[in-house]
């Protein structure tokens, strides 16, 4: 939920997420859950019960990063965990309906990456800054990288984007496995490496791959 990449494929997409969290925060591995009329696959946070990444049987994917555009000052209490908002996506039939209708008052700021397969892939960056919603339709034929604003400032993020785009440029054969390796080699954070967040480390990497209308989850 702290570093997320999206890379289009000829017949789908790959979305990969590094979760940087307290290593003592337990998580259940991805499992299929019935949410209303949908089967949704996601890893579950054992403490809060929500998640940071999920997809349904049609490949509709939601991924959470903590923080909005800039690092915010945390309040002592919030309405409920942002991880439940990821699951709220599947209370609606489309991502656009979710964005327009969901009530986010009382939630801590976050950024969502939303992917919806169809005749043309729909990719949306959706930010809640604690007061307003901001949705941006992105070019689903282009790669993107996001970094959590609560852990990485803009300069660090810009450097990461440049390195990520350079890696794509010099590698003609990009595969889900090579993307996973890139995340392991470049975005794995160890305890004490993040100033001001010394108790945080990369606890898992989750990858959702949609190829030829088949969606798979890999969890490390």
Describe the structure.
- The protein is α+β, with helices and mostly antiparallel strands.
- The protein has a single domain (3-219), classed as Penicillin V Acylase, Chain A, CATH 3.60.60.
- 19% of the residues lie in helices and 39% in strands.
- The protein has helices at 83-88, 95-101, 154-170, 176-187; strands spanning 3-9, 12-21, 27-35, 38-45, 53-56, 61-66, 110-116, 122-128, 133-138, 144-147, 201-211, 214-219.
- It has a 7-stranded antiparallel sheet with strand order 3-4-5-6-7-8-9.
Provide tags for this entry.
Penicillin V Acylase, Chain A; single chain; alpha+beta; 220 residues; 7-stranded antiparallel beta sheet
How would you sum up this structure in a few lines?
The chain is of the alpha+beta class. Helices cover 19% and strands 39% of the residues.
Q: What count of helical segments does DSSP give?
A: 4
Counted up, domains total 1
- As residue ranges, the low-confidence spans are none
Q: How much helicity do the residues have? A: 10-25%
Order of helices and strands: EEEEEEHHEEEEHHEE
Number of strands: 12
- The name of the CATH superfamily reads Penicillin V Acylase, Chain A
CATH class: Alpha Beta
In quaternary terms, these chains amount to single chain
Main sheet properties: 7 strands, antiparallel
CATH architecture: 4-Layer Sandwich
Strand adjacency order, main sheet: 3-4-5-6-7-8-9
Tertiary shape: globular
Radius of gyration: 16 Å
CATH topology: Penicillin V Acylase, Chain A
Residue share in β-strands = 35-45%
Q: Please report the distance between the alpha carbons of the first and last residues.
A: 14 Å
Q: Kindly state the mean pLDDT as a whole number?
A: 90
**Helix/sheet category:** alpha+beta
